[in-house]
Amino acid sequence: MFKRFRRLRSSANMRELVQETRLSKSDLVYPLFARFGVGVRNEIGSMPDVFQLSIDELVKEAAAARGKGIRAVMLFGLPDTKDGVGSDALSENGIIAEATRALKKAAPDLLVFTDLCFCEYTDHGHCGVIDPKSGYVDNDATLELLAKQALIHAKAGSDCVAPSGMMDGMVVAIRAALDENGFETLPILSYSTKFASAFYGPFRDAAQSAPSFGDRRGYQMNPANAREAIAESLEDEAQGADMLMIKPALAYLDIARRLREQTNLPIALYNVSGEYAMLKAAGKLGLIDYDRALMETMIAFKRAGADLIITYHAKEVCDLLDGGEI
Ligand code: PBG
Known about the structure:
The chain is α/β, with parallel strands linked by helices. The protein has one domain (21-322): TIM Barrel (Alpha-Beta Barrel), CATH 3.20.20.70. Helix content is 38%, strand content 16%. Strands 1, 2, 3, 4, 5, 6, 7, 8, 9 and 10 form a ten-stranded mixed beta sheet that branches. Helix 3 packs parallel to helix 4 and helix 8 runs parallel beside helix 10 (290-304). The chain is globular. 43% of the residues are buried. The chain binds ligand PBG.
């Protein structure tokens, strides 16, 4: 009998030797939600085991993550007050600035990536300022604000700014502002290909950032478009992005693979809130083997071409790697 494919599957050791793709703790970026207050640890309803954290708690969570072997966090901020332009994001005493300073002080060895966007800070929940005439997000006015926000993050000690608002020209605008102000060595991880996705639902609960009118389809991408997805990312590379991102991850592995073949930059895949919620829910109901499904998902991201995986599961993945899973 022809048993060619069995030969190298005969033992765990042999399978390990010929494994093509590996997952390691260095692949992981752990998203965290910072808010004001003291001793606050609010679990997010639609994301079990994920919390909105006051800065004292955030520092503890980050230290625990670093202790498990995680090298980077992605920081999101929840301001106390929101307004039309997102003033908290433009203030040196805003939540991201305060949280970044605290994290860098407490854990200098942990990389703090900061999400650069306005949807968590504006009262209308859109990712930029609204043009009163058209009622849509004003791209170019938002670019000026993004440049200011990037400098706030840079001065607070961010290790990498990550613009997520899908404004046209955002990378070049942010790069120019950083370079002019002495932050030439601060990298940009662009959310370069971000789809208008239903899988962001639980995040919007977490960040209280659902748009109060309309939707984000005017600036986020149509899930049906693959060529445009590559064009978006290559455009950000041309503008000077240091790393690119595909978001969401699970339903877009074909895009990650295509991009992998067209760029030499590192690629991050964002395993978003809705993907996290689905796996958690199915696990809790006992419908799947949660640990195995989780690790299978992670290795699939690597196989598709991801260098970085941004995931709420990061701490669990470390525990499973320590336990010899995969
Ligand atoms: C926008 C932003 C979003 C996410 C990360 N950055 C949400 C959005 O576009 O509505 C989603 C992350 C997730 O769903 O886990 N600042």
